[in-house]
């Protein structure tokens, strides 16, 4: 029997191991120089001014809504086709989550659906939008930004799937995901199924010095030695806000640094894999579309098939562990119960009935991919 083929897998090599081991005997296991080095390198990688490392992206999303000032009862729009954390962060702050529908071809939050939802309510009804670069495909944030400006909304870009992705703006300029050009804050995850594996971990990015300072303060208990009202001596600090301990360790940061250095090659390999899937499926099986000029970092490779459960079960008998991304968030019991509105999200629900994510990770071999393609194709052909 061949080895199991999962839908995603981390890629840890000797240099990653060496970096972690070296940090274990260094002076700092946490709050040391590796964290800052990782932040600086990450910010430089995607062209953002500031980066703040956190213990996971869920914490990062929580800090993002707090830094943007979300208060109890305030409303935020996100996509139903995402991991629950994109929505949950709003609930942590006591806010309401509203869902707009997805585009049936890109699977991303639909600009038209978002616009319609916003315009169906009085001015000031919503505070922000959290679009998600789903599967690694960048949201057109330039378009979302003009909508957001018109209605005085902030934007958090959930770029957990998309380190290294970019889109071309209306001037033809390349905009890296999470570069802060159009969104107020970007967020990335370093969970092992994502591109950069730290075990757990996340990174916030922003171009705003004010947001950077707020995020940094909230990440570490709201404690600071800056801008203090009093100063009793070298030991003195102030807790200026109610913050959290959402810090990333130096051990994880050391791993993040070596992982980040491989991301470009990893994304290129993922795109080679995507190209091969597309070549095999074109005209037969629907897959996520790629708008002109965009790079999809391909956290996932999603196809749509009529008998999704049949294919999922069949692939498991072949030791291929495809996965479903995602069960629409608005259909989760928790969100159904607190539903603020009866959500009519036809495209999201139709997508969910057919979607399945095929194996996609840099170390997937050509032979393994051929096997996956052969099994999918033979199932589709009956
Ligand atoms: C993985 C993921 C998260 C949460 O990341 P963690 O680091 O596991 O907290 C949030 N949003 C999206 C879209 C994700 O895929």
UniProtKB/TrEMBL annotation:
Keywords: Aminotransferase, Pyridoxal phosphate, Transferase. Belongs to the DegT/DnrJ/EryC1 family. NCBIfam families: PseC. Gene3D superfamilies: Aspartate Aminotransferase, domain 1 (3.90.1150.10), Type I PLP-dependent aspartate aminotransferase-like (Major domain) (3.40.640.10). This is UDP-4-amino-4, 6-dideoxy-N-acetyl-beta-L-altrosamine transaminase. Its EC number is 2.6.1.92. GO terms for biological process: polysaccharide biosynthetic process. The active site is at residue 194. InterPro entries: DegT/StrS_aminotransferase, PseC, PyrdxlP-dep_Trfase, PyrdxlP-dep_Trfase_major, PyrdxlP-dep_Trfase_small. Pfam families: DegT_DnrJ_EryC1 (PF01041). CDD domains: AHBA_syn (cd00616). It comes from the Bacteria. The gene is pseC. PANTHER family: DTDP-4-AMINO-4,6-DIDEOXYGALACTOSE TRANSAMINASE, TRANSAMINASE. It comes from Bizionia myxarmorum. One of its GO terms (molecular function) is pyridoxal phosphate binding. The modification N6-(pyridoxal phosphate)lysine is found at residue 194.
């Amino acid at each position: 029997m061949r080895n199991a083929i999962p839908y995603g897998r981390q890629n840890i090599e000797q240099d990653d191991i060496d970096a972690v081991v070296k940090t274990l005997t260094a002076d700092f296991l946490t709050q040391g120089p590796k964290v800052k080095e990782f932040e600086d390198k990450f910010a430089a990688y995607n062209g953002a001014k500031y980066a703040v490392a956190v213990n996971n992206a869920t914490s990062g999303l929580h800090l993002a809504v707090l830094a943007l000032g979300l208060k109890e009862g305030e409303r935020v729009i996100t996509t139903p086709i995402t991991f629950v954390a994109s929505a949950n962060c709003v609930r942590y702050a006591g806010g309401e989550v509203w869902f707009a529908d997805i585009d049936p071809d890109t699977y991303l939050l639909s600009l038209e659906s978002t616009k319609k939802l916003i315009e169906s309510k009085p001015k000031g009804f919503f505070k922000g939008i959290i679009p998600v670069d789903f599967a690694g495909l960048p949201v057109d944030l330039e378009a979302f930004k003009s909508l957001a400006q018109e209605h005085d909304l902030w934007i958090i870009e959930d770029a957990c799937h998309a380190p290294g992705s970019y889109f071309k703006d209306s001037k033809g300029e390349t905009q890296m995901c999470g570069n802060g050009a159009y969104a107020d804050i970007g967020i990335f995850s370093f969970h092992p199924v994502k591109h950069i594996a730290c075990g757990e971990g996340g990174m916030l990015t922003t171009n705003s010095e004010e947001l950077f300072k707020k995020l940094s303060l909230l990440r570490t208990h709201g404690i600071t030695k800056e801008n203090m009202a009093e100063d009793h001596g070298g030991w003195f600090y102030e807790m200026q806000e109610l913050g959290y301990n959402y810090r990333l360790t130096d051990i994880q940061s050391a791993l993040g640094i070596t992982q980040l250095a491989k991301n470009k090659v990893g994304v290129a390999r993922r795109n080679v894999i995507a190209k091969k899937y597309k070549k095999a499926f074109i005209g037969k099986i629907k897959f996520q579309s790629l708008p002109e000029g965009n790079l999809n970092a391909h956290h996932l490779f999603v196809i749509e098939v009529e008998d999704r459960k049949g294919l999922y079960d069949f692939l498991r008998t072949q030791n291929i562990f495809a996965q479903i991304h995602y069960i629409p968030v608005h259909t989760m019991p928790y969100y159904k119960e607190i539903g603020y509105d009866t959500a009519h999200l036809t495209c999201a629900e139709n997508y969910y009935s057919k979607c399945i994510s095929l194996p996609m990770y840099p170390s997937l071999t050509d032979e393994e991919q051929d096997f996956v393609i052969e099994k999918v194709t033979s199932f589709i052909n009956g």
